[in-house]
Amino acid sequence: MGVEIRVEGLTKSFGRQVIWQDVSLSIPAGEISVLLGPSGTGKSVFLKSLVGLLKPDRGHIYIGDRDLPYLPEHQLYETRKLFGVLFQDGALFGSMNLFDNIAFPLREHTRKTEAEVKRIVLEKMDLVGLMGAEGKLPGEISGGMKKRAGLARALVLDPEILLVDEPDSGLDPVRTAFLNQVFIDLNAQLDCTFLIVTHDINTARTVPDNIGLLYQRHLAMFGPREMLLSSEEPVVRQFLNASKVGPIGMSEEKDASELEAEAKMGLDSGKLPPIPPQQMPSNGLVRRGQHAPGAWCAAHGVTPPPGSFVDELGRNWVDEWPRYVASMQAGQAVGAGGVTPPGGPGFPPPGPGPGGAAH
Ligand SMILES: Nc1ncnc2c1ncn2[C@@H]1O[C@H](COP(=O)(O)OP(=O)(O)O)[C@@H](O)[C@H]1O
Ligand SMILES: [Mg+2]
């Protein structure tokens, strides 16, 4: 199922610059969580703190009963093997072909034979839709393929936790949508907890089970996707609506007089847009953390904004859900009595591995 990461009172500063303080959250095992935040709020610093590349000033990071910041070096080294990390630039070695790049952690950290290395590398390349690209050099492939190669390398030691830093940086919206589909398909297929850091609002709205928002040196909110997407909290609302109106200004926060001026003009960050249906696996599997659409809202007496959970075909997934679950349980393929998930069967087109052909 992957493992839970429990963060308590985590604080990090560089010299006198506090990056964030008193961050507490539990990242649920096996689910996809997204951490959102304006640029420079310390999202990358947070990921690096989780894997022990940066040491927090105070606070705890529990994985099971291990408290990462306080582990002796050799135990930290062992615990790091639970993590797969996809850094922002993919961090591939430019002089090595994709096969050798992806094989690198296996050759460094295990005593597997070359035959085993080959089997594992090809299996992971298949998982991310990179079959046939083994001999390519990083300089010869597109940004989307580089991210997939970095992802295959992050998966090669079968991590319990996958951390991904800005998968959408440098990718166009179509490539981003394909890569997001790969994450969703992998999540359904692997026993792994996902934490994806992004400032892409569309990714945050459709991909995760949970959303967190880093803002003004603290974690403004963390919880189930529907909770954040229906929140009236001004910062959460402004950020998830990509609105210029609200407490977030050009240079991070606006001052009191700017906010007062907006209030006088009767501006607010707009009506909440509809909550979109979650993007579903394209590989016929169910997400690890799957909840029925609208379930959180219903359980908490929250009326979702009008038009919520309606997909591009006009189907309301609150109503569609029982039929979809039944067709999944019966193992019916899409088109053969099976219900097409939001996004449609051709998204992405069928191809090698989840996520379809390499892009
Ligand atoms: N190793 C470091 N030493 C000093 N300051 C750093 C270091 N790493 C990051 N920072 C600072 O921490 C802040 C947050 O950076 P970062 O985590 O990269 O933001 P984000 O990923 O949210 O865009 C920035 O002001 C950055 O300059
Ligand atoms: Mg960053």
Explain what the structure shows.
Residues 5-241 form the ABC transporter domain. It comes from Actinomadura logoneensis. Residues 342-353 have a biased composition (Pro residues). There is one protein chain. The chain is α/β, with parallel strands linked by helices. It has a domain at 5-252: P-loop containing nucleotide triphosphate hydrolases (Rossmann fold, 3-Layer(aba) Sandwich), CATH 3.40.50. Helices cover 33% and strands 18% of the residues. It has 12 helices and 12 strands. The strands form 3 sheets. Strands 6-7-8-3-9-10 form a 6-stranded mixed beta sheet. β9 and β10 form a beta hairpin. α3 (98-109) packs across α4, α3 packs parallel to α5 (143-155) and α4 packs across α5 (143-155). The chain is globular, with a radius of gyration of 21 Å.
Task: Using brief descriptors, characterize the structure shown.
binds magnesium ion, Rossmann fold, alpha/beta
